[in-house]
């Protein structure tokens, strides 16, 4: 079947195309949907004056190649298909976005001539695309000026469908743009100054003898040790591309570009050893502007004084404030729904740093508790009335229940130096877990201690300030499966270590403001008070709930459980932020709801996703292999050793081969060339000596 123009073609089997992708005047591809809804792409050519369904002879042109000639200095972003390229071009106008026709199986037919001398970024969408990109990577060696393979941060949500609004805020798209700019800027700067690009190319292109067709790399794929998991899918952004305009080049704190790597005398590349760290460098920084203005100087000064991330300092303050408010104020967005101001937080990081950050807030609460216990006046003064405890250090159910009996509005439970504290909360079975869930939700609970009468708690409220280790392999044991219901209640913060900063001046006024804010919360009425939202705040909360509902469709397991508690935690965060600013508020204002929604969506959710993935039984197998090789100091390794010892037989032989191929493509391994002889020589890989020289974490 033929026609005078591509648009007039009809396929005998698939019917009328859904969409045409025109590569040139003589070549185009048509998208169809079969009876099951699966997408099909069929090539067509113009032969003389007629168009017909046929694939031209290789090499096949690139979609979007026309822009390469008009923008010779722009970095090139290679994606998997035409829809991805069109969406990416709208989202990232600083780049030339291209794709090859025919899908992953046609990668060897693509014409790479237009990419010669260009800075190329390869972005895979799924596992099959990662394998194709690895093959494309091999083809571009010696042709492109530099090659980089990237993936979006693993903490981001699953791919969205272009027919619905994405469950990500526009700031996520901004982060994508900054990620791509970090890949392009170092090369552009070198080109302008006339410097050599060899170092940059060596950072991303292994030597020619390491080339193999590989599956998508799971380490060192993105800047600063990003895991490279392609969890955000560009091909699905078709209809939403126009919603995001490119932002100005903001003067904000952006991580430095990845340092250029070199090769040693043997030709081994120097892959970024940051790929072996905790993998949290791609997570967002804490939005300090959600705090009341009077408390921001305290947070910044305390972070400097404690040599700790400001994230941990602020979340410690919010949790301490929640422990003081507890059930004395309940946020109610509707007559049948109310939430106590209870927060459970888990600060992820080195124990010494997180302990210092937590103490910045706990020290103020202990001081308030001490002052409250001292009777006013001289020695003849009447004894002070019994004051409710503010902090309880004993996590046993009976001890916490006794403290709640004396403090109906709630208490604060710090868990700083206990790595297995979450497991301890449920170690005695479901009775304890039911108690802790009541302590989070403020639901009535009766505790029957071993000794003494039963304790009936009308509205228990326990805020928890806990610490989780960040060293490799420690997150999963700290989040046991038996405590999944409690894990879903935790607000995680896993920041990178801050840069060196000089100690602050004496922060007297800042400390006084923070102490005064907490002291006002101690004086709240002990009887629970229902605090509604203002009309504007209610409208803002409804907007959050709509976005929350749209983002829940593709989640499962621990992530779905954590996401499901989002509206409740947003109400609690809004209440804590509002009462820290003004303890006498009778209604929660719109600003508090907006700040809490932004904090939960833009900061807490990415951090929670990163922690839950590391602790949820989904290891990065390539990273696991690299850590094993470094510990064992293996100069060479066999497939059997990788599968049985490094991976613990978690993967079959084929999956192990794909992991090894990805490590070869990234320069961590190199195939051993066996001498010719009789029989089939055993397969082995030589290990990059720079990995063996790296110290253990």
Description:
The protein has 697 residues and is an alpha/beta fold. The strands form six sheets. Strands 1-5-4-3-2 form a five-stranded antiparallel β-sheet, with no helix packed on it. Helix 7 packs parallel to helix 8 and helix 17 crosses helix 18. It is elongated. The termini are far apart. Residues 158-167, 185-262 and 374-381 have low confidence and may be disordered.
Helix content: 25-40%
Largest sheet properties: 5 strands, antiparallel
Q: Report the average pLDDT across residues.
A: 76
Q: How are strands sequenced across the largest beta sheet?
A: 1-5-4-3-2
Proportion of residues in β-strands? 5-15%
Number of strands: 21
Number of helices: 22
Determine the N-to-C terminus distance. Answer: 64 Å
Form type: elongated
Gyration radius, rounded: 29 Å
Determine the structural class based on helices, strands and strand pairing.
alpha/beta
Give the low-confidence spans.
Answer: 158-167, 185-262, 374-381
List the helices and strands and how they pair.
Elements: E1 2-3, E2 19-22, E3 27-33, E4 39-47, E5 50-52, H1 66-70, E6 76-78, H2 82-91, E7 96-98, E8 119-123, H3 127-140, E9 146-150, H4 170-193, H5 198-204, H6 296-306, H7 310-325, E10 326-334, E11 337-341, E12 344-348, H8 351-373, H9 397-406, E13 411-415, H10 421-425, H11 430-441, E14 445-447, E15 455-457, E16 462-468, H12 475-478, H13 484-487, E17 490-493, H14 508-522, E18 529-532, H15 535-551, H16 557-564, H17 566-581, H18 590-615, H19 621-632, E19 636-637, H20 639-646, H21 653-665, E20 669-671, E21 685-687, H22 689-693
Parallel strand pairs: 6-7, 6-8, 8-9, 10-18, 12-16, 12-17, 13-16
Antiparallel strand pairs: 1-5, 2-3, 3-4, 4-5, 10-11, 14-15, 19-21, 20-21
Helix pairs in contact: 6-7, 6-14, 7-8, 7-17, 15-18, 16-18, 17-18, 20-21
């Amino acid at each position: 079947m033929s026609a005078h123009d591509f648009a007039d073609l009809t396929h005998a089997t698939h019917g009328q195309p859904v969409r045409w992708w025109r590569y040139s005047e003589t070549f185009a591809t048509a998208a169809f949907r079969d009876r099951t809804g699966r997408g099909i792409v069929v090539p067509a050519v113009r032969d003389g004056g007629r168009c017909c369904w046929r694939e031209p002879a290789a090499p096949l042109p690139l979609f979007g190649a026309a822009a390469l000639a008009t923008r010779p200095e722009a970095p090139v972003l290679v994606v998997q298909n035409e829809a991805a390229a069109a969406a990416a071009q709208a989202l990232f106008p600083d780049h030339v976005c291209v794709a090859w026709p025919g899908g992953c199986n046609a990668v060897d037919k693509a014409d790479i001539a237009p990419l010669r001398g260009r800075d190329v970024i390869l972005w895979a969408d799924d596992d099959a695309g990662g394998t194709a990109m690895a093959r494309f990577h091999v083809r571009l060696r010696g042709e492109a000026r530099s090659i980089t393979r990237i993936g979006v941060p693993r903490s981001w949500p699953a791919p969205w469908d272009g027919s619905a609004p994405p469950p990500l805020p526009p700031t996520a798209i901004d982060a994508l743009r900054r990620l791509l700019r970090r890949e392009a800027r170092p090369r552009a700067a070198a080109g302008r100054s006339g410097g050599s690009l060899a170092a940059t190319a060596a950072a991303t292109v292994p030597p020619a003898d390491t080339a193999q067709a590989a599956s998508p790399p799971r380490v060192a794929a993105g800047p600063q040790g990003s895991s490279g998991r392609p969890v955000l899918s560009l091909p699905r952004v078709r209809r939403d591309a126009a919603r995001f305009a490119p932002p100005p080049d903001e003067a904000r704190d952006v991580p430095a570009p990845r340092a250029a790597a070199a090769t040693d005398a043997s030709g081994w590349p120097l892959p970024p050893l940051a790929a072996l760290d905790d993998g949290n460098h791609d997570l967002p920084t804490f939005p300090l502007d959600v705090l009341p203005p009077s408390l921001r100087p305290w947070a910044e000064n305390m972070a400097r004084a404690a040599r700790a991330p400001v994230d941990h300092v602020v979340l410690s303050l919010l949790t301490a404030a929640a422990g003081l408010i507890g059930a004395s104020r309940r946020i109610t967005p509707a007559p049948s729904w109310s939430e106590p101001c209870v927060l459970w937080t888990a600060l992820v990081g080195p124990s010494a740093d997180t302990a210092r950050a937590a103490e910045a807030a706990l020290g103020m609460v202990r001081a308030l508790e001490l002052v409250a216990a001292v009777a006013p006046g001289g020695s003849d003064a009447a004894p002070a009335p019994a004051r409710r405890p503010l902090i309880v250090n004993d996590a046993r159910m009976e001890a916490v229940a006794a403290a709640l009996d004396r403090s109906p509005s709630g208490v604060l439970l710090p868990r700083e130096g206990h790595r297995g504290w979450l497991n301890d909360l449920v170690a005695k079975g479901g009775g304890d877990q039911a108690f802790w869930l009541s302590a989070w939700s403020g639901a009535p609970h009766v505790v029957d201690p071993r000794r003494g009468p039963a304790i009936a708690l009308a509205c228990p409220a326990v805020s928890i300030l806990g610490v989780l280790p960040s060293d490799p392999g420690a997150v999963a044991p700290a989040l046991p499966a038996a405590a999944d219901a409690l894990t879903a209640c935790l607000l995680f913060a896993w920041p990178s270590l801050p840069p060196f900063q000089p100690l602050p001046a004496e922060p007297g006024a800042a400390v006084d403001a923070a102490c005064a804010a907490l002291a006002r919360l101690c004086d709240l009425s002990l009887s629970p008070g229902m605090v509604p939202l203002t009309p504007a705040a209610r409208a803002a909360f409804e907007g959050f709930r709509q976005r929350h509902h749209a983002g829940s469709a593709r989640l499962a397991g621990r992530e779905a459980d954590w996401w499901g508690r989002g509206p409740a935690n947003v109400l609690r965060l809004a209440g804590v932020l509002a009462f820290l600013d003004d303890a006498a508020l009778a209604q929660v204002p719109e600003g508090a709801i907006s700040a809490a929604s932004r904090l939960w969506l833009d900061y807490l959710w990415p951090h929670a996703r990163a922690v839950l993935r590391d602790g949820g039984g989904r290891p990065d197998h390539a990273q696991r292999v690299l850590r094993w090789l470094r510990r064992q100091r293996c100069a060479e390794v066999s497939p059997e050793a990788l599968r049985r010892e490094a991976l613990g037989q978690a993967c079959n032989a084929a999956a192990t081969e794909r992991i090894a191929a990805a490590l070869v493509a990234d320069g961590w391994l190199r195939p051993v060339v066996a001498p010719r002889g009789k029989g089939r020589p055993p397969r082995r890989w030589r290990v990059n000596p720079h990995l063996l020289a790296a110290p253990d974490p």
